[in-house]
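User: Could you check the structure of this?
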Amino acid sequence: MFAYLAAVFITLPVPLTIIIYMIMRKTVKNKKKSLHVTVNSMTLIYVLAVPAALFVIFERSYISYVFILLILLLSLFVFLQWKVKEEIVFKKAFKGFWRFSFLLFVSLHVSLTIYGLAYRLMTL
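Assistant: Sure, the predicted structure tokens are below.
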């Protein structure tokens, strides 16, 4: 049962994001805080959904590349914080990295979904 639920979450993260946001809006009563909770809770799902979509489209695993990209992004955020603030507050660097990762992987997931649909329609 857990495997099926995880598969649905990874393959359909956009509806899940909307559902979580609506639940948080009703619970928290604050738009900004509910958006932050949704972003924080859904980032990992999108990070897992992108390699799954890449595997379905190209029939090759790209999870190691995604992992390397995440490490490089975190390193970039730590470096930028050190350059700007001259000290590293890891919690702030990680928060920026996490939110940027959400934006990056949501856009990648939407792009891959559109590409995958167009590719499958053209090969029919």
